[in-house]
Amino acid sequence: MAHRIEVTSVVPDTRAEVRKRKLADLGFPSVQDVELIDVYTVDEDLDISDLERIAGMLVNTVVERARFNGFNYHSDWAVEIGFLPGVTDNVGNTVRQEVEDLLGRKSNVYTSQLMLLRGQLSGEDVVRIANSFSNPLINRVHIKSLEELRKDGMGIIIPRVRLDAKPRADLVAILNASDEELQRIGKLGIFDHNREVSIEVFEGYRRTNANDLLKLRDAFESDGKFFVKVRRGPLALDLTYMRTIQDYFRRKGRNPTDVELESLAQTWSEHCKHTIFADPIDDIQEGLFRIFIKGATERIRREKIERGERDFCVSVFTDNSGAIEFDDLFLVSDKVETHNTPSALDPFGGSITGIVGVDRDSIGFGLGAKPFAHRYGFCFGDPDDERILYRGKDFTDPMLPPRRTLDGVINGVNVGGNCSGITTSQGFIFFDERYRGKPLVFVGTLGIIPRESAGRQSYEKKANPGDWIVMIGGSVGKDGIHGATFSSEALDSGSPATAVQIGDPITQKKLSDAVIKEARDLGLFTSITDNGAGGLSCSVAEMARESGGCFVNLDTVPLKYQGLKPWEIWVSESQERMTLAVPKNKWSEFSELMRRRDVAAIVIGEFNDSGKCAVEYEGETVMDIDMKFLHDGLPQRPMMTEYVRKTHEEPDFLALEDLTESLHFMLARKNIASFEFISMQYDHEVQGGSILKPLQGRGRINGDATVIRPVLNSRRAVVLSQGINPSYGDIDTYHMAACSIDTAIRNAVCAGASLKHLALLDNFCWCSSNEAERLGQLKEAARACYDYAVAFGTPFISGKDSMFNDFKGYDEKGNPIKISVPPTLLVSSLGVIEDSTKVVSLDAKVEGDVVYVLGETSDHLGGSEYFAVVGKNLRRKEYIGNNVPKVDAEKNKRLYFALSQCIEEGLVASAQSVHRGGLAVALTKTAMGGLLGMNISLRSLPGDFTRDDFALYSESQGRIVVTVDPRYAERFERIMEGNVSARIGTVRGDNLFVVEGKNGREIIRTDLDKMLESYKGTFRGY
Questions:
Q1: Structural domain includes residue 534
Q2: What is the arithmetic mean of pLDDT over 344-355?
Q3: Per-state percent for the chain, helix, strand, coil, to nearest 5
């Protein structure tokens, strides 16, 4: 018998008040009262004393009370929202472990939240409310009226997974399959089962899909009954790949099993193999990655050594993360991932899975790096856009609106970082209506690892023949199936719900501590990697390349529930799992350590040198593929590009005499305004190493870089920043990439980094990458990465790409649409600062300090925030323009070295990079940060600008605003000789911000209070 424990508040519940305000915002002001009740359903026959003991763990008796199997509710409506069967319930899992510790026996626990509503609401109103706070992909919803509550209460619901079919491996008939059928299998997957339907449904399928090659289902008639064949979901294998697989199995003289075909799909997916970057393109036979990204790093490392400089790169492009030297004893690793498509379906689950997943890239680097810092970056559609898009025809399968996506993603990264005990400090947010169909969610993790551990180079790993294959962490379920192949395609009505996962940071924290703090330094394993994309199919097979082969017995893999098919066990991406190679003579010690730390660990096979990947299930061989074919058998697909730079309409408007109002418009732009509401949710102090915070100065302004000490007894620190300029790509993706690199470098240098110890990471998020024009844009961006990384001497150490960020569906009127994200490149920078006491923040410090601008200002307003504002004000449409910012790398490099010398000598009081929004925004951020006004004059501003507003809002690259104590001004100017710099003003002691134009006329007069209201008001209430 199951029991229901309800925890209610006996004092005013802030959560309920927030919910009530939210309901009013959603159009339900008639809701008079809201009560929120946390529900724990325990699937175990317990007596009242047991229930009371469990409740004692769950209740804060000062402010809460518990009741059991509740029945009497005083409300007009009740809405209960929980998780669907099989969806990860983190709180439920934690309570289950606590109950097991308390009672000494296992009990399944499921959580939900009950929302009691009082007010004049119809049944349709309540359904709308329920839909506003749930996601049908992961949530179950139960609604009851007052009459139903009085009669039956809420009842007890157990969301168990029930799988009735006997699991087995199936053969997939491809040996004699036509190209048409091969294409169907590659696009839509293997047939899974038949479902009986009505004659009306059958006829509907036949009429609608008769000529549709890539239809989701096939219909057939048998013995007077009508059936629909249901396919499993995308393999993301095109016809060229399917023909190659067909030829391989023809040579073997048999059809593949579904396990083999699914495994090949995971391994060959764009998500895993990055084929668009690897395959020949135009005349570049070795591919974009090898020539432009890896090639840049190889040249930089080679030339540095030739010049006698130290090569600080240690591990690049060969492991889960890239790593550089931190000092003589430690390395620092870094990796930035994307989790775009899952976050479009379930923003919370997608983002939390992304951030705990990239943590495992740190844990899986070398023999295990300790995660110590998170990065994040979010690209969303306008959160004020309330239109509903649909994945399916006839207004079916609605997408979440941007605001719901924003809230869910932010919350997921919050929970993933805070519950993992990892500082989340550096990030950004960017808005464009083209992220409406699919958001971009960037998450990154930095790790610290000693150079040596247990007598070994800790950044080197190798599974040896004879080592046990050991899986540790969580169990396997249907969540995360087809995650890798799903992420390799556009989002549409065939996107599977099973691709959605929800990470459990608490389970992973135990795993991480056991591996990093103990097992690694005891020398108990020889290799490790995470069960990310493709699950066991990829992690085991990748490690087997180190040894030469592997054998796996799927019967031994721990499952969340029975009934999973062997292919599901093999490819599921269920979270919180790592695969290790453990020498047999170390297994006893390793397994005992994991047992003591409450981390599940089980032997699932053995590494060998057979040259094959062999998998067995219930005594039957379900996979037997040559390692060479599995990893290197995919055919190359040469690509051709087209690239024609478009010309856009230039805005034609007169400059205003008073630019004060325009300044406030700019500060309130969503792409410029404060995102303090995010920074304040993320714990950036945990682990105690935070030096330069995400919010800087007395005014608490979002900075462009943060600084963290990963080794607390050392003054050395790492500096993190990034550059991203999607709007420039509308004009020229080459210059977009160049500006992203320059911005990432400039932001870091402003905080105290030096180009002598600075590395980069690239994340390409492209769209429609099977189109020649998009490939041409990609090629130009990659070419710029080579040119400017080499010019600055900043090597790429890691990267990731996501190539099909498109949405295919229907708009609010039911019309077919395709929404593609703008070609987007995120460049992240990672630097090592020798003395963290010399770090510089953005805020002005003292009245009378001199304000300098470093670098030249030109009319670079193409793709700028100012043109977007002007367009909105003049014609409700954003202008783009054509004069995109460009980067003079050699000039900027000299400037950055000079600034680094000034910072090293302690001459700089504050430094703020000039980027989005231009000089005006950089100056106001410096003033607002210090809560000090400024007198600024454009008369001495270096450059060839034509108008005052263009000077203020141009986004010319290579510029920095700095403030300097007058006592140090002479020395500062001497070091800056040979670089473009000029005094343009002073810091005031009051709150006035005054700007004079080129002709000496006052063009801006405002005060800090008004500027802060504009800057911080946009997201107030989020």
A1: no
A2: 89
A3: 35, 25, 40
Confidence of residue 760 (pLDDT cuts 50, 70, 90): very high
- Rg of the chain (C-alpha set): 29
Please state, in angstroms and rounded to a whole number, the distance separating the CA atoms of residues 663 and 262.
55
Please report where in the chains the tokens 């393109």 appear, as a residue.
281
Q: Are the C-beta atoms of 591 and 601 separated by less than 8 Å?
A: yes
Q: 221 and 108 in one domain?
A: no
**Number of structural domains in the chain:** 3
- N-terminal to C-terminal alpha carbon distance within the chain: 42
pLDDT band at 484 (very low <50, low <70, confident <90, very high): very low
Residue 975 inside a domain? The answer is yes
Q: Are residues 846 and 973 in the same domain?
A: yes
Q: Is 374 helix (H, G, I), strand (E, B) or coil?
A: strand
Which residue shows structure tokens 């005990």? Answer: 421
Range of the domain at 208: 179-268
Q: Which of 274, 339, 374, 664 is catalytic?
A: 339
Q: Does pLDDT of 493 surpass 50?
A: no
> What is the C-alpha separation between 243 and 259, in angstroms, rounded?
18
The pLDDT tens digits for 47-82 are 899 889 998 999 999 999 998 876 678 889 999 999
Q: Is 271 a catalytic residue?
A: yes
pTM score, two decimals? Answer: 0.89
Query: Which residue in the list 3, 142, 193, 271 is annotated as catalytic?
Result: 271
Does the residue 516 lie in any domain? Answer: no
Lowest mean pLDDT across 200-209, 246-255, 543-552: 200-209
User: Position 349: which residue type?
Assistant: G
| DSSP string across 861-887 | -TT-HHHHHHHHHHHSS----S-----
Q: Does 211 score more than 60 pLDDT?
A: no
Q: Which DSSP category does 195 fall into?
A: E
**Residues paired with 761 in a beta bridge:** 798, 828
Residues 140 and 257 in one domain: no
**Is-catalytic flag, 193?**
no
| pLDDT mean over 743-748 | 98
- Residue 226: its H or E element: strand 225-231
Q: What is the 3-state secondary structure (H, E, C) of 808-859?
A: EEECCCCCEEEEECCCEEEEEEEEEECCHHHCCCCCCCCCCCEEEEECCECC
The pLDDT of residue 575 is 80
- What does the angle CA 949 – CA 953 – CA 955 come to, to the nearest 5 degrees? 140
The pLDDT assigned to 84 comes to: 84
- Tokens, residue 530: 């995470």
What whole-number distance in Å separates Cα of residue 947 and Cα of residue 717? Answer: 42
Q: Return the pLDDT at 194.
A: 66
Q: Is residue 733 part of a domain?
A: no
